[in-house]
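FIELD: query
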Amino acid sequence: MTDTQYLTSKALKSLLASRGFSVQVATDGKELRRLLRQLRITLLVTDHTIADVISITELISMKKNLPETPVLVLTSEINQMQIRELHNAGLRNVSLKTDDRDELIRAVEAALKGRQHYSDGVLDILLRKQESIDTNGLLTKSEVEIVRQIATGLTTKEIAVRKQISFHTVMTHRKNIFRKLGVTSSSELLMYAMKAGLIDSVECHS
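FIELD: result
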């Protein structure tokens, strides 16, 4: 299990232990990779939105390298595009941290049996009308504006000058944007933004 949120990891560890599992908790990406190398993992429970643990790109890559390892994505932040991206990569067990105990148990059991499972909350997201990043509430208006400025080729310093905020504030926004969208580079960010309709391809500069 990978999670840096104390209450979440404590509650989930207790829930899994009650089902007879021995639980190891990784609080960062380095520890997660070490556990994957050293242990035979029966089930990996992880959140792709937590900084310094694992991004969607890394999670998809890990699934390719460890195809027999069941994975349950348990998160508080996800949108239609991310669900579809995970699904296409074979990661088809997704639940929300707001799900109740019975729902989480069903999710764990489905993952262990190799069955696809989306919790009711995740299905609600999938059944919504097509949404864009900003209307989904994933990014703030200021963050959306910064994504667009990155797409036009502005540097962090130039964005700070244009928005009349500090360089550090822009860097904080960038870090939050990367964390929320589960991307690890500017190129991934631009591809995500174009796919989501947040920017047009004509806006994008490499």
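FIELD: remark
Residues 130-135 have pLDDT under 50 and may be disordered.
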